[in-house]
Automatic annotation (TrEMBL):
Predominant location: membrane
Similarity comment: family membership: Belongs to the acyltransferase 3 family.
Keyword Heme: no
Domain annotation Acyltransferase: ranges: 6-311
Protein name, as recorded: Acyltransferase 3 domain-containing protein
GO biological process: enterobacterial common antigen biosynthetic process
A GO CC annotation given for this chain: plasma membrane
Gene Ontology terms for molecular function: O-acetyltransferase activity
Membrane topology term: Multi-pass membrane protein
Domain of life of the source: Bacteria
Compartment(s) of residence: Cell membrane
A Pfam family of this chain: Acyl_transf_3
Membrane spanning residue stretches: 12-31, 47-64, 85-102, 128-148, 160-178, 198-216, 223-244, 256-275, 287-306
Length: 326
């Protein structure tokens, strides 16, 4: 079996379960914010909002790691297109068709009618089902990976750290500030509109490289964990209070915000710190690896399973959802 990075497999498993957790809890988002179901939904939602950023961070850790072998950018692209992008693109097409068939059946529409060719073309424009958007994102990051690897291979630790600080400040920080300004009726900060490179998922991708290749001091880890805990409380409390006093908003749930980033980084660093040198038994190691290999399939099918459960009225409250799924 190909050598695995076990703590990365553990992170992938945790992120996958967090996605299922998120989508099972979020079904009550549009109910009355004063109900217990909504409050539980907000609580669980806030706990696992790091899941998608974690997938991106994991991808960066794997794709940007410094291998001994040197290869030119042409061979890098040949490898990544044939091995990774082709796999994701194939899954995107197959599962888009599968979800289209499912929605047609649910809506009593004609299944794969003469508009099928148009559907096939639409797959390359927007996701057919809500969770498939991530596949578009990851394909884009894979396309950029060989170029980003040139930066990470030649940059010092300090230079990568500066990039992450800029990402957190001018990318995510201003993104959150603009969202809050617009929410309260003010004009957004124009400066941020000219820095899209710092406001996207590339920062998470490079963070995966940084936290994989460089170890934080014990003191830094401690502060990171405390900050992450505070930000979880901030997300829960802020999202709970805003709809009561003003109006409902998902601003604090966004993936591209500083607090979500710090929570993601804290979990990544914690799992790496605890399991990087942990001596798993062969049986436990095999179980982790096999479960990790199933996560992509779980991500693709979980939306269908959740929707079927909801339609059968099996998920009557957030608590019941968690009990049934976990």
């Amino acid at each position: 079996m190909k050598e695995r990075v076990i703590y990365i497999d553990i992170l992938r498993i945790l992120a996958t379960f967090a996605v299922v957790f998120l989508h099972s809890a979020s079904s009550f988002w549009y109910t009355n914010p004063t109900t217990i179901n909504w409050q539980f939904s907000n609580f669980y939602d806030s706990l696992v909002r790091w899941c998608v950023p974690m997938f991106v961070t994991i991808s960066g850790a794997l794709f940007l790691r410094d291998n001994k072998e040197r290869s030119n950018i042409k061979s890098e692209y040949k490898k990544i297109i044939s091995k990774n992008i082709f796999r994701i693109l194939t899954a995107l097409i197959i599962w888009s068709i599968a979800y289209k068939i499912y929605t047609d059946i649910v809506n009593n529409s004609a299944v794969l009618n003469k508009e099928f060719i148009k559907l096939f073309l639409k797959i390359f424009v927007y996701p057919i089902y809500y969770h498939l958007w991530f596949l578009y994102l990851i394909i884009g990051l894979y396309i950029l990976a060989p170029l980003l690897k040139i930066f990470t291979k030649n940059a010092t630790k300090q230079e990568v750290k500066i990039f992450l600080i800029l990402f957190l400040t001018f990318g995510l920080g201003l993104n959150l500030a603009n969202s809050l300004l617009e929410f309260f009726g003010f004009s957004p900060i124009y400066f941020n509109k000219n820095l899209p490179e710092l406001g996207g998922y590339i920062g998470y991708f490079i963070a995966g490289f940084y936290f994989t290749n460089f170890t934080l001091s014990k003191k830094c880890r401690k502060y990171l964990y405390i900050l992450a805990f505070i930000f979880v409380l901030f997300t829960i409390t802020g999202t709970s209070l805003l709809p009561i006093h003003i109006k409902r908003t998902e601003i604090l749930y966004q993936n591209l915000t500083p607090h979500t980033a710090f929570i993601t980084f804290a979990i990544f660093v914690f799992v790496k710190d605890k399991f990087y040198h942990y001596n798993f038994s062969q049986k436990a190691s095999n179980l982790i690896v096999k479960t990790s290999l199933l996560t992509f399939g779980i991500y693709l099918i979980h939306a269908l399973v959740l929707d079927l459960l909801k339609k059968q009225r099996y998920l009557k409250s957030v608590i019941l959802q968690i009990i049934r799924l976990f």
